[in-house]
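Incident review: delayed structure delivery

Summary: a single-chain prediction request sat in the queue longer than the usual turnaround. Root cause was a stuck worker, restarted by the on-call engineer. No data loss occurred. The affected request and its eventual output are reproduced below so the record is complete for anyone auditing the incident later.

Affected input:
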Amino acid sequence: MKKKLIVAATLTACSALAQAQNNVTIYGTVDQYIGYISSNSGAHIIGLNDGTLLRSRVGFRGVEELGNGYQAKFNLEQGLNADTGSSADAAHLFDRQAWVGINTPVGEFRLGRQNTEIQQIGGAIDYTERTTFGSIINSFGVPSRYDNDISYKTPRISGFQGSVHYALAEQAGGGLSQSAIYQLALDYTAGPYRAGYAGIVAKPAPTGNIQEKIQYHNLYADYDYGPGKIYLAYVHSNNITSNANGLTAGSILSNIASPNNLIAGTDKNANRYYNIYQVSADYRLSPQLRIGALYGVIKDTSNGDAGAQGGNVGAFYDLSKRTTLYSFASVMTNDANAGFRFSGSAGPSANLAGADVNGKRLTGFQAGVVHRF
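Output delivered after worker restart:
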């Protein structure tokens, strides 16, 4: 009850602030879909899930002009399970973003819980923005956001824009570099072309017996040919481990990163790296209707037979600028020692696990609607 009162008071205060200042915006999305998943084990499940494309959320963002090219900015954003009305993350009041920053003529500086650069480039990865059942990169897992993050983004110069992040681990007795999470990104755009890199490196606790850094490196290249785009993407990472859901169904570096971005340094899976290759394309049939397809492969470089392959076909239909209908059909085949599962922008509440995904072929169907406000 106390937490509910705190949330209500916070939302009321933010709403009052938004009404008092015309430079504060209340925004959000509601994304709901019917999802069907089946396994060649014979199991299947159907459910109403949140977030194929955009996790349901409500947010507050604001900008204050300070003069001479300077701005003060903030963003507070909370994820929602719109199918149940519950909070997406009970550990955070604003689980998706909570930062304050200063934008200057030489770049933007931010402090707080922030999206990763890898999460931000979703639109450059494939035609679904890397969020559907069929996106192999999404099924592997995408580092999304971290606490205690300090970032700097350059202005775009001659098509190039760079970003750096440093997320503090806040460990007693440790130096600045101990158990920290680093990010680096470089994006280039020129006419119909876009290409870039976004990566994360996380240091384990010095007391851990496995000192392999957790890494996620993402290269991408796109070409806009007019009525559609072609997307190429590559990922190299060791950020995967096993859990009760499957042999390869968990991330070593959690998006919640509790406590304080700390990696224990005890997971032997950190020594196993994967390469992921994915190609995708879309085509706009009309101003309202866009179709697309993708295919991807996860390669286990340790030859442990723990990879996967698959893809999807799908369509988007815009009812308006704010409301889109979508549908996707997907398939993914796990190698004998792999247990990757389907995921959307949020993990589906109705999903298969364990023996129904380990070494199995999964098929899935999604049909839903997303509304932006």
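Verification: The CA atoms of residues 220 and 278 lie 10 Å apart.
Action items: add queue-age alerting; document worker restart procedure.
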